[in-house]
Predict the 3D structure of the following.
Amino acid sequence: MKKLMFLILLTTAGLSINKAVAQVNINVNIGSQPLWGPTGYDHVDYYYLPEIESYYYVPERQFVYLNNGNWIFSTGLPTRYQGYDLYRGYKVVINSPKPYRYYSTHKVKYAKYKSNHSQPVIKYSKSPKYYVVKGHPGNSGNKGNFKSSGNSGGKGNGKAKGNSGGKGKGNGKGKN
């Protein structure tokens, strides 16, 4: 009887360990995503921004854009994109290394999203999973000041001019 109990205990422990290992391998970076990022993704490496034909590298919080034939990595966008609204512009999630190597393909493939402003963004999401994002109105560090504008379509009420989202901060008005 003791052997049977020991065998059952050992089997149960083994199953628990297997489940724990499987759960550890999940890669989630919700807290690293900017407030202007689209909802629905637990992990994002890059966003492609079709309207300005640029990328945003989430882990390093850097924009990647072409300047005189060279790819520039910067925490802000250049002045030529000063009027671009990060909350309204469509973002294509790309989870592959160095996607700018395929810029020519992305430029053509995602051109149809240039005037699409219907993508819901993290800032206006009521999903608790986004409360970990710094600056989200549901984040407990923000004293629970969640105000829904009824605007989950990602239209936003602020302009993210140029580099306002570069460090995952900003108030939607271009100030860090």
Strands lie at 46-49, 54-57, 62-67, 70-74, 92-94. Helices lie at 2-24, 103-109. The chain has a mean pLDDT of 77.
